[in-house]
Design a protein that fits this description.
This protein is of the alpha+beta class and 85 residues long. It is 36% helix and 24% strand.
């Protein structure tokens, strides 16, 4: 299972989002710090879920990181999050 699939599965399970897009943007970072041949190092995530309603930006980011877990987050060099309810 790819890292993209793992991120998608974990976020769907944790938040039942009505919108979720996970993009592996690693190739656009070729030559930069953290780039790994084969990708799966830089991600853009757009997620919309009622679970985030009323939460601060930092609380939303913490919730996503907690849902992904330390092991998966530790394998990702960059994770750009666009989170809303």
């Amino acid at each position: 299972m790819t890292v993209t699939d793992q991120i998608t599965r974990k976020l769907q399970s944790a938040f039942a989002p009505h919108e979720l897009e996970v993009v592996d943007d690693s190739e656009s970072h070729r030559g930069h710090s953290g780039f790994q041949e084969g990708g799966e190092s830089h991600f853009n995530v757009r997620i919309r879920a009622e679970a985030f309603k009323g939460q601060s930006r930092i609380a939303r980011h913490r919730a996503v990181h907690a849902a992904l877990g330390k092991e998966l987050v530790g394998r990702i060099h960059a994770l750009a999050l666009d989170i809303d309810s």
